[in-house]
Write a structure and sequence with these properties.
alpha+beta, ATP Synthase, domain 1, 2 domains, 8 strands, binds adenosine-5'-triphosphate, CF(1), proton-transporting ATP synthase activity, rotational mechanism, ATP_synth_F1_dsu/esu_N, ATP synthesis, cell membrane
C-alpha cells in the first residue's frame, strides 16, 4: 500500500507525524481526500476533523482552520490549533460550548462578539465530535 508523509503543525509545535494511506479533511471549498501522489495543492481549511487512514486504522485530529499544503511526497497541515482525538478534554469543550451559546444569546447576530462566539462554538462542537471519532 502506497503512503504519504503527513505532518500537522501548530504555532506551539508538531501534533502529528506519520506515513498514511489517505488524508481526508474539509477545506473551505469542500471535502478533500488526498492520496499518495496527489498533485500539489494549497487550500485553506475549515474548523474540521482531519482523518488519517493507515493500516486499517483511522487517526482523528481536530483542527481550527489553517492551511493544507500537498507536495508529491508530503502533506503539511498548518493549523492555529490541533488536537489528537485522545488529547481532547471533553469537559473543557463542553464548557466552551455552553459559554459560546450563552454569548450568542446575549449578542445581536451582526455584532463582532456574536461572530467570535459562533467560531468558539464551532471549535467546541468540532472537538466534541472528534473526541467521539464520529466525523
Ligand atoms: P477554551 O475556551 O476552552 O480555551 P478555545 O476554543 O477558545 O477553547 P483555542 O483558542 O482554540 O481554545 O485553543 C487554545 C489552546 O487550548 C490550544 O493549544 C488548543 O489546542 C487547546 N485546547 C482548546 N480546547 C481544548 C480541549 N477541549 N481539549 C484539549 N485542548 C484544547
Amino acid at each position: 500500500m502506497k503512503t504519504v508523509k503527513v505532518s500537522v503543525v501548530t504555532p506551539d509545535g508538531p501534533v502529528y507525524d506519520s506515513e498514511v494511506e489517505m488524508v481526508s479533511t474539509k477545506a473551505k471549498s469542500g471535502e478533500l481526500g488526498i492520496l499518495p501522489g496527489h498533485i500539489p495543492l494549497v487550500a485553506p481549511l475549515a474548523i474540521s476533523a482531519v482523518r488519517l487512514k493507515k493500516g486499517g486504522n483511522t487517526d482523528f485530529v481536530a483542527v481550527s482552520g489553517g492551511f493544507l499544503e500537498v507536495r508529491p511526497d508530503q502533506v503539511t497541515i498548518l493549523a492555529q490549533t490541533a488536537e489528537l482525538a485522545s488529547d481532547i478534554d471533553v469537559e473543557r469543550a463542553l464548557r466552551a460550548k455552553e459559554r459560546a451559546e450563552q454569548r450568542m444569546q446575549e449578542q445581536r447576530a451582526e455584532h463582532t462578539d456574536f461572530r467570535r462566539a459562533e467560531l468558539a462554538l464551532q471549535r467546541a462542537i468540532n472537538r466534541l465530535a472528534v473526541s467521539e471519532k464520529k466525523l
